[in-house]
Amino acid sequence: QSIQTLTPQAQAVRSAQAFTDITAMVKPKITAQVRQFASQTQAFLTQGQQLLADCDRLTTPTRAKSIAQIRDFIESLLHARCVIDMSESGWKDLPRYLKAVAYRLEKLTENLPLDEKRQQEYAEVEKLLKPADKLRSTNPTAYQQAQTMAIELWVMTFAQPHALKGVASVKRMQGVVSGG
User: Please, which residues have CB within 8 angstroms of residue 75's CB and are 6 or more apart in sequence?
Assistant: First the structure.
């Protein structure tokens, strides 16, 4: 299937030699794509590690709740199976999500009361994540939509300059979770 997406000649394979020729032609393209993907993944993981180190550096008793939530968000983005689980659009948005985390950490040091208020606003989204987890096995598409909306709502709540307008809303997320 990968070969067919990389070269239209794959449709014309009628012999072992034709397959060998097409494979030889496509192999450099696939190798380059794999290298690029590995490089991007390494960069994302490195940035995530740096943000986790920033969380450690910024942790104080008064910021503990905010830092714990930020740490959970980072770990939800870059968990052990993220390379397998994340959709293609998620990979495209991951740099923006990591920038949003950095933005929130920066703003947290400036205005903790505002961050605490926003945590209360985001609590409604977190409540929707519990029923959304049930969709993982029964409706994976709806589960992925709910997860993406939760991430976008996190960005909208805590890092507005990095948010996409009109991508998600609590009401739409409720509809996805409830099957409507």
Answer: 52
Identify whether the C-beta of residue 121 lies closer than 8 Å to the C-beta of residue 161.
no
Buried b (16+ CB within 10 A) or exposed e, 136-166: eeebeebbbbbbbbbbbbbbbbbbeebbeee
Dihedral of the alpha carbons of 99, 147, 129, 44, in degrees to the nearest 10: -40
Give the DSSP per-residue string, 67-87.
HHHHHHHHHHHS-TTHHHHS-
Per-residue pLDDT tens digits of the chain, which is 180 residues long: 454 455 555 555 567 777 777 777 777 777 887 888 888 889 999 999 999 999 999 999 999 999 999 999 999 898 877 777 777 777 789 999 999 999 999 999 899 999 999 999 999 999 998 888 889 889 988 988 999 999 999 999 999 999 998 889 999 999 999 886
User: CB–CB of 41/83 below 8 Å?
Assistant: yes
Per DSSP, the chain holds a count of helices (H) and strands (E) of: 9, 0
pTM above 0.85, yes or no: no
Amino acid letter, residue 56: D
**Residue among 28, 14, 112 nearest 64 (CA):** 112
